[in-house]
Write a structure and sequence with these properties.
By secondary structure, the protein is an all-alpha fold. It has 18 helices and no strands. The protein folds into 2 domains: 2-90, no CATH class; 106-325, Orthogonal Bundle (MetI-like fold).
């Protein structure tokens, strides 16, 4: 099993290298430092002196890959690739291009706000989706199953923005149960988090229930389930004790792969509800065309995704004996 985990970790090295190279190409070759300077300074009619000053202030005046004016290792370190791209490897994100704030500090400060929204949304939603899908699968072929599928398909067909705006209008404006948007520290933040968490759970109900229902229906038709039924076990015990244990692989895949999104936050949800997490931080940077922040968030999201894939492979060794035997 240890060899299996080591192999999976080694596979991530070329992926991270590819992310760094692609990030460098997109942010410094496709989009040149001169174009970034023009964008940040307000347009194309900016004098060359102002562009050069902005580039020098943000270390974008350096050569991209090799600095022929330097000697030894400084030929590589005094370059844009080393200072702006390779430094991402050890999570040195540098300063914002727009207001010169420390990006690493902002990420650490805002990560807690994102987790306060995404973790309850994820845990409560997962438990609810699995429970509802198991009930529907238990009563397969009945009116409960048929109407459950119809409702789930209808919920899947509605765009997520409708749930957000509708929830804000009904719960915030008409009923005045919760504030429409905003955020506060401490326990006061709960009143701002309840509505986005509720809307997030409802918005993902349709697709998730149909997905888990399909998994359970496929599993309960296997031979070992028929054997358990033939021994006189109740349908509830067969479903909740035997079937649930053997569908953990697809469930774990969804659970572990959701880890990057927990840290990165929800772009739309945070923007609409005024939550100062990493999602709104990314959206603000995109609107402001702050390439340093966007570059840092793209790399951080890629690393978290790779970590999620590795954790998924490791979790397989815990629930699938075939992986351990390999």
């Amino acid at each position: 099993m240890l060899n299996y985990i080591i192999r999976r970790c080694l596979y991530s090295i070329p992926i991270i290298a590819g992310v760094l190279i692609l990030t460098f190409i997109l942010f410094f070759i496709v989009n040149s430092p001169d174009r970034m300077a023009e964008t940040m300074l307000g347009g194309k009619n900016v004098n060359p002196e102002a562009i050069e000053k902005w580039k020098r202030d943000h270390n974008y005046h350096l050569p991209r890959l090799f600095n022929t004016e330097e000697k030894s290792f400084r030929m590589f370190t005094q370059t844009i690739f080393y200072q702006k791209t390779l430094s991402l490897l050890w999570f040195e994100f540098g300063k914002s291009d727009r207001n010169n704030v420390d990006i690493s500090y902002q990420i650490r400060r805002r990560m807690g706000y994102s987790l306060a929204l995404t973790v309850p949304n994820f845990i409560i939603g997962l438990l609810l989706y699995i429970f509802v899908s198991m009930i529907i699968a238990f009563y397969r072929g009945s009116y409960l199953d048929i109407w459950g599928i119809v409702v789930c398909v209808l919920m899947m067909s509605i765009v997520g923005l409708f749930y957000i705006i509708g929830g804000q209008y009904v719960l915030g404006k008409l009923l005045k149960i919760f504030p429409i948007s905003g955020f506060d520290g401490g326990f006061s933040s709960l009143k701002f988090l309840f509505m986005p968490i509720l809307i997030g759970i409802i918005g993902g109900l349709g697709g998730s229930v149909l997905f888990y229902r399909t998994i359970f229906l496929e599993e309960i038709n296997r031979d070992y389930i028929r054997t358990a039924r033939s021994k006189g076990l109740s349908e509830g015990k067969v479903l909740f004790k035997h079937a649930l244990k053997n569908v953990m692989i697809p469930i774990l895949t969804g659970v572990v792969m959701a880890i990057p999104f927990l840290f990165m936050g929800s772009l739309i949800m945070e923007s609409f509800f005024g939550i100062p997490g990493l999602g709104s931080f990314t959206i603000e940077a995109i609107w402001a065309q702050d390439f340093a922040i966007v570059r840092a968030m793209v790399y951080l999201g890629s690393v978290l995704t790779v970590v999620g894939l590795i954790l998924t492979d490791i979790s397989y060794t815990l629930v699938d004996p075939r992986v351990r035997l390999e």
